[in-house]
Amino acid sequence: MIAKIEELLRRVEDFRPKAEAEIEEFRIKLLGKKGEITALMDQFRTVAPEMKRELGQKINTLKSAALDRINSLKEEISAASAAGGGTDDLTRPGTNDYPGSRHPISIVRNEMVEIFARLGYTVADGPEIEDDWHVFSALNFPEDHPARDMQDTFFIEKNPDILLRTHTSSIQVRVMETQKPPIRVICPGRVFRNEAISSRSHCIFHQVEGLYIDRNVSFADLKQSLLYFAKKMFGEDSKIRLRPSFFPFTEPSAEMDVSCNLCGGKGCNVCKGTGWLEILGCGMVDPNVLEACGIDSNEYTGFAFGMGIERIAMLKFGVRDIRLFFENDVRFLRQFAPAL
Ligand code: DAH
Question: Cα(317)–Cα(327) distance, rounded to whole angstroms?
Fold first, then answer.
């Protein structure tokens, strides 16, 4: 009997199953109703009393060794299958989990906010659904201005007119109405225009508006601030030029061009051979606008500017089609993710 116990103990120790099913088979073979260890225990009842102590211990040791071995083999197998079956080819290339990243429009917007923050500008916000006063009237738009046309602007209600803001300049009105100069704000936001006339134009885009009001603010301050912005956004070699223009809310008004950062000003197909790219509108805030917002135009002057974020992002990243910003194609967006 002792020889049998020792043989069984060795079999338990040497047991190396190749498949999970073999473990259960092994258990039944040893510990099942007709199992070999079970049979030993039956036999044990008939052994001489003086042998009982020693044999009993040996059988118990064998039984628990068998149970331990079976249980630990079962655990090993189920842990391996939870980890992928244990048959994984560890040299196979891993699957790529791309972390999320900011949308290029957000990247550029944040960069603008950061650049102007260094000049002391803080961020101001306003509603996307606006009234006529904040979008047009306070900004000196005449009654019959074409922007008030249903064809250009999405109206939600007429009389009184409620509409989707067509520019972020509405935020400068809200800031001037509620804050006392000195005022230095930057207003990023979404704007809406009824421009579905061509498949290339888009009804929604993003703008950043800037406003600076204080005593003795001059056109030179405007030019210097915008030159600083252009250098930080497009590189220290950037130059700017201001061309006379017209906006109802500024006088004088200008469009600003930045030297083409793709050809360095020599002329290429992006700048259409001119070496310059138009990026924003600006000017000295019209005294009528200051007065409409409750600011004394004899005491204060100021400048304002506004630009489209898509346009800046296209020039900065060399994006040729504005629609890419709205399609949310991950193949496009992934290119702006930080390197892993
Ligand atoms: N609001 C103008 C637009 O949507 C952009 C603009 C031009 C804003 C000149 C300004 C400015 O503040 O001074 O086209």
Answer: 17
